[in-house]
Design brief:
Order of helices and strands: HEEEEEEEEEEEEEEEEEEE
Strand content: over 45%
Structural class: mainly beta
Number of strands: 19
Largest sheet: 8 strands, antiparallel
Number of domains: 2
Number of helices: 1
Radius of gyration: 33 Å
CATH architecture of the largest domain: Sandwich
Shape: elongated
Distance between the termini: 119 Å
Length: 277
């Protein structure tokens, strides 16, 4: 009889001890989108996040701006509910920051439910905050003369080195145009271009190759038609440029322009080329 009491007592302790532990529940909300940006003119940092939630209680969202190089928190502030629809809520907020240092930053988003029993912390990708610096052409390297081949296309290699303090991702494109005079070798027809032009070719652009000694290296092989006017074919014998009357000789000048995402530019003009036979 005593043994039965002991067993019953042990079972009672086991049941009550298990029931006193909190039951773990899966989070009922998640962050679908998040981003931030810094307005250099207004000196304001803006934050946004989209949250999917199956809960009725109010969510609280706060953010912290963190500098990447030393992991120091620059500022933190709360986001406010902007709108909600179909269990999705948009939270936005902004605050002013004067004299924010140029550098790489990321933002931490912390989402809590109303009784702080559930929490999500998510981090954005790092982004560079800096004023829009204009790009710069450092050097253009190309020959000053070429000779057309009687039957084969030839290429003028052009190397351009540039820079942009906002980084390589800020460069939109590097393009070239020409001006000068060209003469058809077989017909004698003269073509004059007093102003810089790309002759309607939107693909007169240089391709990024690499970063060399902290400079952005761009390259292109500019094709020149042979004297007999032959077509230019690719490796599969497909026509790139159809056959024409013949190659053209003369004197032209190149203009190279580097353009960034902010529309800022730098250019170098009057790079001379003599085209002969």
């Amino acid at each position: 009889m005593n043994l039965q009491k002991i067993i019953f007592f042990l079972l009672f302790l086991l049941i009550t001890s298990c029931s006193s532990n909190p039951v773990s529940t899966q989070l009922e909300f998640s962050v679908l989108e998040k981003y931030f940006n810094y307005n250099l003119e207004s000196k304001e940092i803006n934050a946004y996040c989209l949250i999917d939630s199956k809960m009725d209680q109010l969510l609280m969202v706060s953010v912290s701006l963190v500098k990447s190089d030393n992991e120091s928190e620059i500022i933190s502030f709360d986001l406010l509910l902007d709108n909600e629809h179909n269990n999705q809520s948009v939270f936005i907020g902004s605050t002013s920051i004067n004299n924010l240092e140029i550098g790489d930053y990321y933002m931490m988003f912390t989402v809590l439910d109303s009784d702080s029993s559930s929490q999500i912390v998510e981090q954005t990708e790092t982004q560079n905050i800096s004023p829009p610096f204009p790009p710069e052409i450092i050097e253009v390297i190309m020959n000053s003369s070429i000779q057309l081949d009687p039957t084969e296309w030839i290429y003028l290699p052009v190397n351009l080195y540039g820079n942009d303090l906002n980084g390589i991702d800020d460069i939109l494109r590097v393009e070239y145009k020409i001006r000068g005079m060209l003469v058809s070798e077989c017909t004698g027809v003269v073509e004059e271009y007093p102003e810089y032009t790309n002759l309607g070719n939107t693909n007169w652009v240089l391709d990024f190759q690499d970063i060399v000694n902290n400079s952005f290296f761009y390259y292109i092989d500019i094709p020149f038609r042979p004297i007999d006017g032959s077509a230019l074919l690719d490796e599969d014998e497909e026509i790139i440029f159809p056959a024409s009357d013949c190659g053209k000789i003369g004197e032209i000048y190149f203009q190279f322009t580097i353009i960034d995402q902010s529309g800022l530019t730098d250019e170098i003009n009057d790079i001379y080329l003599e085209i002969g036979i």
